[in-house]
Amino acid sequence: MDYDEDTALTGPETIEARWAYDGPRNREQVTEAAEALYSLVRYLNNATGPGAGSRTLRSAATSYRVVSGMKSGVSAMDQLLGQVAGALAGQADNPSLYDDRRDRSPAIPPARPSTRWPRPGPRSGSS
To answer: Are the beta carbons of 48 and 56 closer than 8 angstroms?
Structure first.
């Protein structure tokens, strides 16, 4: 597939075209977006790894934009993880859910998800 810079969508436009921020939303779209997150990380791992990285990360400006995009994504993970943990906590007492792996000892109680994620402490050397 040829890349045409004049007609190509930006990353955010591509995501918005597939998963509109304002919805509508359903279970399939949410799981598809989570799976796409992994695929994007996998793509970046490959595109910046040995062989490709010498071409794709040739300039400091490009490296800066990659790191900035990663920083934005990682900083939003706290909210996402908290929301998923809250949903799991609400589902923990659902009697219709069970562990079907059959290899867990009944003496080990099931883990309960935390609704509070630990906050990082101050960095050393910062005031």
So the answer is: yes
113 within 8 A of 92, measured Cβ to Cβ = yes
Rounded CA-CA distance 54/23 in Å is: 39
> Does the pLDDT value for residue 127 go beyond 60?
no
The CA distance from 43 to 45, in Å, is: 5
Cβ burial of 40 (10 Å; 0-12, 13-18, 19+) is middle
d(CA 123, CA 106): 42
Q: Which tokens go with 37? A: 């997150």
Bond prior to 24 in cis (omega within 30° of 0): yes
Q: How many residues does the chain have?
A: 127
Task: List pLDDT tens digits, range 50-78.
Answer: 989 999 999 999 999 999 999 999 999 99
pTM for the structure as a whole? 0.66
Q: Is 103 helix (H, G, I), strand (E, B) or coil?
A: coil
Structural tokens at position 55? 């071409």
